């Protein structure tokens, strides 16, 4: 139950689509992108954007962006503008860096020396501040020494000025730089992407559209998810296997939950450090950038706990299937599992300024107690996390007032003690209840009879069980992917996957 509406911010969602076969395509790429983004709406609700391309040389890009949910950001009459797209990428945003305004809405499009590129990004660059200085220096050099000789092309060769505060524009800057070992002006996009990946180790899942292809890129630590799906005729959707000749198009998404709603079959994950080229001819793995020797991968463990939809597949397995049975104490204890609260999902952020009466009603506006189910009984309540500790107390009070004799809280994650620098908005250290003196007697502080947390080891075991066998299968099927297991637990342990640069 998501009781703790406490300020952990989800991140962003990216989605891409390339029509297979002859172009112009009959596939409605813009509609597929829109539906894909709707399925990723839980990852960001501040703004949404789509860029489609006809894929010709030079390509025509069409961009649509808006604030709010996908359903309100795109008007039907505007969607018509995107109808000639053979490929495209989309983004739904929750701002972790950069302020919330249309200017920061992705995907970004920029003109480079080698044609336009569009970029959609999920994550946050751990060394953004250092990179930003570097990008500014390059720009200064280009302006002082090259523009007089080369005009606008000199500026393009070294990127353009940063006009927004988001990491995604910084990524575009780095892509515009000529890699050190390349000839000046060489249009080798794979070398440029590799250069970006060596400049910044994490955290990003990226879609880069250029000419007639999309590059799907995951950072070497695999901190953010990215999966590939295959669009098939609806009649083949539920048949197992299937020929790749049936393929109507390829999709790539932050989460595979979006594949069901658009008639795509899960194909595989983009591996940590992998650059995959997606074109009308299919999928091609171009390179895998390794991590420093000995470093394990660091997929965000909170994707399992909190962010991702339960019908998504991560690391080769449906994530909630095994996970919930291990976490759910009702499953192992034999205690009856009953509903005790009814949530009004439509309260959300209200525009009504709370007066004293509404404030006193507090949590009752959002939850109704199913009194007959528990009056006179002891209740064990499961929450996915306790972050600030200010949302659960009114719920406990509500249950007690409605007749619960005891309320025991069990938390399906360890205490959160540290900030995240990889794309998740977590309150400051001082705001986290686990760092406050009151935490020593948290049960008393929140009004519960008892409180127990899952241990870090328990969470890691729950997540990693089953993944090992999948990794072994990958090796036996000839995959070049690393079989090392590892998850980021930094907000729980303070051990970050890379050294932080400030
Ligand atoms: S610090 Fe926490 S939220 Fe951030 S990537 Fe690591 S596990 Fe995920």
UniProtKB/TrEMBL annotation:
Pfam families: GATase_6. Mg(2+) binds at residues 324, 383-384. Residues 12-281 form the Glutamine amidotransferase type-2 domain. The active site is at 12 (nucleophile). One of its GO terms (biological process) is purine nucleobase biosynthetic process. [4Fe-4S] cluster binds at residues 300, 420, 488, 491. Pathway: Purine metabolism; IMP biosynthesis via de novo pathway; N(1)-(5-phospho-D-ribosyl)glycinamide from 5-phospho-alpha-D-ribose 1-diphosphate: step 1/2. GO terms for molecular function: 4 iron, 4 sulfur cluster binding; amidophosphoribosyltransferase activity; metal ion binding. Its cofactor is Mg(2+); [4Fe-4S] cluster. The keyword Magnesium applies. Its EC number is 2.4.2.14. PROSITE patterns: GATASE_TYPE_2 (PS51278). In the C-terminal section; belongs to the purine/pyrimidine phosphoribosyltransferase family. This is Amidophosphoribosyltransferase. It comes from Silurus asotus (Amur catfish).
